[in-house]
Design brief:
It contains seven helices and two strands. The protein is mainly α and about 170 residues long. The chain has one domain. The chain has a two-stranded antiparallel ribbon with strand order 1-2. Helix 4 crosses helix 6.
Length: about 170
């Protein structure tokens, strides 16, 4: 059985709850909140998370919980950082018009051993890269070298409780 490059990439980037349309809606919703509330409301505040969750659920009937959205944002940040790192390496070349990262086969073999997520970009670049740049750009006010979502470790229970209340009140 032969898979297209796009199908192979989807195996890395999506699981059963997510697809590119939901990711675009999630990111668009977070960007709208970021733009409307900057600098008063962080992109990943509970309010922004719940608004993004509701936007995706309203259109796609996805049944997402706030925790699903938080985890997806964390994964999207990881994709953004991984792709930016890959595209900026001295041993690779990002062909922007075609959104393809080029490297010798020996380099790809070493890269994938170094970081498994690089494999997602072996034949196609990050499809949402420019949206992710807007969302996670280090030009925003953040602590240097911070990859934190700003969520305390124990906030997931509060989010789940909050989501149930919001869902019950609609």
């Amino acid at each position: 059985m032969s898979f297209s490059h796009e199908e192979l990439q989807k195996q890395f980037l999506y699981n059963r709850k997510w697809d590119s349309r939901k990711d675009k809606m999630l990111i668009s919703s977070l960007l709208a909140k970021k733009e409307a509330c900057k600098p008063h409301l962080p992109t990943e505040s509970p309010h922004a998370i719940v608004a993004a969750m509701n936007a995706v659920n309203d259109v796609y009937k996805a049944g997402l919980r706030a925790l699903d959205v938080v985890k997806r944002i964390q994964f999207l940040r990881k994709c953004y950082l991984t792709f930016a790192e890959l595209a900026n390496r001295a041993d690779t070349f990002w062909e922007l018009p075609r959104n393809i990262v080029h490297a010798d086969e020996a380099v790809w073999t070493r890269l994938v051993q170094e970081k498994r997520l690089y494999e997602a970009y072996r034949h196609l670049g990050e499809p949402l890269y420019f949206m992710l740049v807007q969302l996670f750009s280090p030009t925003d006010v953040k602590l240097e070298n911070s990859t934190s979502t700003g969520w305390p470790e124990d906030s997931t229970e509060a989010l789940e409780d909050n989501t149930e209340v919001l869902e019950d009140s609609t």
